[in-house]
Amino acid sequence: MKDLPQTVFVVDDDDAVRDSLRMLLKSAGVHAEVCASAQDFLSSYDASQPGCMVLDVRMPGMSGLEMQHELNLRGVTMPVIFITGHGDIPMAVEAMQHGAFDFLQKPFRDQELLDRVQRALVRDTENRARLRHTDRIRERLASLSPREREVLDLVTQGKANKMVAGDLGVSQRTVEIHRAHVMQKMEAGSLAELVRMMMAVAPSP
Amino acid sequence: MLRAEMAGSNDNGNGIKGDREIQRVRTIIVAGQSSDRTREVLRALSGFTNVIWPTSLESTLAQAASQDAGCLVIADDLREEPIDEFLQEARELQRNLPIFVITDPDDVAEAVSAMRHGATAVIEIPPSYAALCEEVSRAMQ
């Protein structure tokens, strides 16, 4: 699957800031779209659109931090760079705790913002690749029968076929057959690969 | 093996086997060069038992990696290593360890950098140590 071109979404209520950011990003060859409010952005956002966001912390209506909360609720994974004229540490810490990619205080040098935007775009590409990878694994997992899934869970815990057979009250031969199906359906070449797949989809602690 | 050694060194030498069964108080590990601020942090945390201030970064990391670690407080600059690198190292050792970094007030860039490198929270000092004690209490629950 080919990704759409990356876009930097700028959300800032200040016309002058929006314009200058658009110009700056354009001059760096980065495609940008600007919105005057969080509501504007949220009503038109398409999750398949890769890129990153540059968000003003303080805006009338929905603030940048509230918008971040909303994005998190919607499962939006785009990296968010906050910009603010009057930042303080508690605000920055809160934004970062909620997953902000960066938090930049005005005034900043153009290059400083561009560097962070570039890094955020790289991060988005990585995130999306990882997501596609785990989606594929989940699809394969969903194709297993309940018994195959049990066998998978036990063998990835490091149990030998004999122990699995004992746990499930079936013959070792049956476990071997299930196990072969699991490897085939999961497209795993080895037990180690299977374990890595399960780790990739395990809920993060 | 390493775990057992560290648990032993935590017990202040009375590494009786039965100790292991008693619910251990987890350690609050303080890192920071020998400075007024580090001493102030240690004083602020004096209400907690089991606060340790290892003498080297190496032993600080070993403590942070042990299962006895309750939280890590980076009180001040470190003598041997930039804070961010040290943070990252500690974070890699223990994904879930609460790590608090003390910074000067209004140094937003430093705070953001610390958060990016794995800090759980950054607390500015002054105004007060109350926020730190609150965070530490929560972490130790």
Please tell me about this protein's structure.
The complex is a heterodimer of chains A (205) and B (141). By secondary structure, chain A is α/β, with parallel strands linked by helices. Helix content of chain A is 57%, strand content 12%. Chain A has helices at residues 15-27, 38-44, 64-73, 89-97, 110-142, 146-156, 161-168, 172-186, 191-201, and strands at 7-11, 32-35, 51-56, 80-84, 102-105. In chain A, α5 crosses α9 (191-201), α6 (146-156) packs across α8 (172-186) and α7 crosses α8 (172-186). Chain B has 141 residues and is an alpha/beta fold. Chain B is 41% helix and 16% strand. Chain B has six helices and five strands, in the order αβαβαβαβαβα. Chain B has a five-stranded parallel beta sheet, sandwiched between helices. Residues 1-19 of chain B have low confidence and may be disordered. The interface between A and B is medium-sized, with 13 and 17 residues.
Q: Mean of residue pLDDT of chain A?
A: 92
Strand residue content of chain B: 15-25%
Instruction: Identify the most extensive interface between protein chains.
Output: A-B, 13 and 17 residues
Largest β-sheet summary of chain B: 5 strands, parallel
CATH superfamily of chain B: Response regulator
How are the strands of the largest sheet of chain A arranged?
2-1-3-4-5
List the domain count of chain A as a whole number.
2
**CATH structural architecture of chain B:** 3-Layer(aba) Sandwich
**Biggest sheet details of chain A:** 5 strands, parallel
Query: Average pLDDT across residues of chain B?
Result: 83
Structural class of chain A: alpha/beta
- Helical amount among residues of chain B, as a percent range? 40-55%
DSSP summary: helix tally of chain A: 9
The run of helices and strands of chain A is EHEHEHEHEHHHHH
Q: Remind me, CATH topology of the largest domain in chain A?
A: Rossmann fold
- Quantity of strands of chain B, as a count: 5
Q: How would you name the oligomeric state of the polypeptide chains in this document?
A: heterodimer
In CATH, what is the class of chain B?
Alpha Beta
Q: Which percent range describes the beta-strand content of chain A?
A: 5-15%
End-to-end C-alpha gap of chain A = 30 Å
